[in-house]
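Design a sequence for this backbone.
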């Protein structure tokens, strides 16, 4: 089982990845956890990453990819993995594909956890973390007055990137950088959408069903005109097909034909009348001359 989890910050990727790990025995590979571990150990990569993470921005690809490469090389990832938080942009997706091709472990499915923006802000701004065991809580779900971890009694704290102002910045970055991955993996027939609002059990069941569903061949995936233009198959400026005009009913056609025929008859009548008046005028004009000729003959 080789899964990539996509979703905005706060969509529940980490929580559900842990559930998949417990059931299927493959490791959860979280780029966020790897980065925080590097920051805690004060490594060179960790120091570089901390400056960017505190601003709510994405860490550079070379840092993240280096950590991911080292993690997938461990023995516990030989039979599969659940990749959480990577890739976050098209460049990372291409780099990941090259890495997985190199080690012979291509992705089986990409699960997109779909959550509304309002819910995401509430989840992230209310999130608190245990500094010792890393367990994540939410103040909206905790009993009133509870500020300590239920496992080891440590005081919970709010991570700098969980402040509301930083949360909004993170969501903007996600919209700009990560959402194009949805179309990227859709074209490959790997993407599955999962409604990620509800109880943990409901979301997990949807994820499991999506992960085990048969993949859709890339040749049968419908691609939008924009994606086709990006791949060079269709011109982005090519005119769209004209919509077929709805067929009129027979009654409407007959009614129009009758109206048309009536109009033609009326027009013909008017022309005939005008012509008739002209002939009548000529006859009247000729009558005096005929009368004169008849009188002369009589004499």
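Sequence:
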């Amino acid at each position: 089982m080789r899964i990539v989890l996509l979703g905005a910050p706060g969509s529940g990727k980490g929580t559900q990845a842990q559930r998949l790990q417990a059931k299927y025995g493959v490791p959860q590979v979280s780029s966020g956890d790897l980065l925080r571990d590097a920051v805690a150990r004060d490594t060179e990569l960790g120091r570089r990453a901390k400056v960017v993470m505190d601003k709510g921005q994405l860490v550079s690809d070379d840092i993240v990819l280096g950590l991911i490469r080292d993690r997938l090389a461990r023995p516990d990832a030989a039979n599969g993995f659940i990749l959480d938080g990577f890739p976050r942009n098209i460049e990372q997706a291409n780099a990941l594909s090259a890495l997985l091709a190199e080690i012979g472990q291509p992705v089986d499915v990409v699960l997109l956890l779909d959550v509304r923006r309002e819910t995401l802000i509430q989840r992230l701004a209310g999130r608190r973390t245990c500094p010792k065991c890393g367990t994540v809580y939410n103040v909206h779900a905790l009993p009133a007055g509870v500020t300590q971890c239920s496992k080891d009694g440590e005081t919970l704290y709010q991570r700098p990137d969980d402040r509301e102002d930083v949360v909004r910045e993170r969501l903007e970055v996600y919209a700009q950088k990560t959402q194009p991955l949805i179309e990227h993996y859709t074209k490959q027939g790997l993407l599955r959408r999962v409604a990620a609002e509800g109880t943990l059990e409901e979301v997990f069941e949807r994820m499991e069903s999506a992960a085990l569903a048969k993949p859709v061949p890339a040749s049968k995936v419908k691609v939008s005109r924009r994606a086709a233009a990006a791949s060079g198959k269709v011109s982005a400026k090519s005119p769209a097909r004209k919509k077929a005009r709805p067929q009129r009913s027979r009654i409407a056609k007959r009614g129009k034909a009758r109206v048309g025929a009536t109009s033609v008859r009326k027009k013909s009548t008017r022309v005939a009348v005008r012509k008739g008046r002209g002939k009548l005028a000529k006859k009247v004009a000729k009558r005096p001359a005929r009368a004169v000729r008849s009188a002369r003959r009589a004499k």
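The radius of gyration is 38 Å.
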